[in-house]
Amino acid sequence: CEPLTRSRMYLWRRRLQRYSPALCLTLFCLILARSLFRSVAGRSEVAFLAVGDWGAPAERPDLVYTQRLVARAMQAVATKVLRRLDFVVSMGDAFYLNGIHNTSDPRLTSVFRETFSVAPRLAKVDWLSVLGNHDCRGNVSAVVEAGRPGSTIVPQLLLPARFWKHDLAIHPRSQLRLTFLDTCSLVCGEGFQEAEHPGKLADALEVLKHPPGSAERHLAIQKGLAEWPPTAEDPLGFNATFGRAYECAKLPPENRPP
Q: Strand 157-158 to strand 126-129: parallel, antiparallel, or no bridges (unpaired)?
């Protein structure tokens, strides 16, 4: 090899000074990757998918088609990206538009059947579920009954109560806890109207007195929006109060626990 002259030594020193941040970053990435690899090898990880607003009504074939597309995409991610799948989190609204009637309701099984028919990988894991506002428009007790552990109605569905938690050990010293809250009963429970401004709530209830799509309803909405515009303290303005009143009016009385 050609001996290093002073000029060559100076050149190499300048190169090291120039690239030392990149070398440090590369070394850090290698150490991090090794740490992650060890974590994966030790199974101290959890892989899951989350989906919401997904249960298309049978009378809307266009939405059923979209539901199948999403299911295929979920399966592709599970098999090609995650390489494994521990469970799916269903974040509500599995039963559009108005929930189910009872545990014999065909909607209860057809929604999952549509998904599993194009994505069988998703049928091999539990679907940890929570109620959405459209689910709460129907028979909530029937959904909970079907979601109890051991139920054979939809074996994958896991929703044992309106409020529940799921603990999963992912490492001898680590545990993952998922907490599921029924926001329908939180938002529309007894006394919910006390949290609203009386004038704003009165305007929202006035809107609901008129048939959907009517000129009177449109004028009432415009009046509410003009009187209660969004502000820094109330970013949603009239929309929040009206949205809550609209949804709570659709909930059966038995789905509003105190």
A: parallel
pTM of the model: 0.75
Quote the CA–CA distance of 50 and 55 in Å, as a whole number: 13
Instruction: State phi, psi for 218 to the nearest 5 degrees.
Output: -60, -45
Task: State the DSSP code for 164.
Answer: E
- Strand ranges in the chain using DSSP code E only, listed in sequence order: 48-51, 87-90, 126-129, 157-158, 164-171, 174-180
> Taking Cα atoms as reference points, which of 116, 181, 101 lies closest to residue 155?
116
Respond yes or no on whether the N-terminal peptide bond of residue 97 is cis (omega within 30° of 0): yes
How confident is the model over 194-228, as pLDDT tens digits? 778 899 999 999 999 999 999 999 999 999 999 99
For 71-115, the pLDDT digits (tens) are 999 999 999 998 889 999 999 999 999 999 999 999 999 999 999
DSSP-assigned beta bridge partners for residue 88: 49, 127
